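Subgroup meeting minutes
Present: P.N., E.W., G.H.
Scribe: E.W.

1. P.N. recapped why we're keeping a running log of single-chain structure predictions: easier to compare across weeks, and new members can see raw inputs and outputs side by side.
2. G.H. added today's entry (160 aa).
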Amino acid sequence: MVRLPDSLQGWRQTVVAEVDDRVIGLLMAGGDHNDMRVTPRLVYLALRTFGPLGILRLLTRLCARVRVQPKTPMGAYHVAEIDVDPASRNKGIGGALLENAEAEVRAGGYRLMSLTTSTANPARRLYERHGFRVVETRTDTAYKRYTGIDGRYLMVKDLG
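Output recorded in log:
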């Protein structure tokens, strides 16, 4: 899950939550987030991994995902991934990860945080409790057919 700074999706911050030397939560984020680019190397690796027919199936799903994926606002510090082990949820870990990220964001001088999440994600309530608000909802029938989920939200938090 962790990507290096020179990769297609290099995150400036990766934070883990641990209990008894066991990782129970993860947050990856960074400023100046660029959406993933398709490169010849990425195409080669995908063909090698999935084969030509697998690539066609994958592409139809990826196209549906692209249609529901909101763009990251310019100048926002984007939370790309936040996940807490299901056995450790509802214990304040996700909130602590968000608070840690916000402290880093404020220290870095950012005025806006963003994240995207599925319309079916119950963690939306956590994000709202921490000051995020939905600013865009994108849905797609093909995405719903593949995933059973209507679409995705773009949520932002103004840091003033």
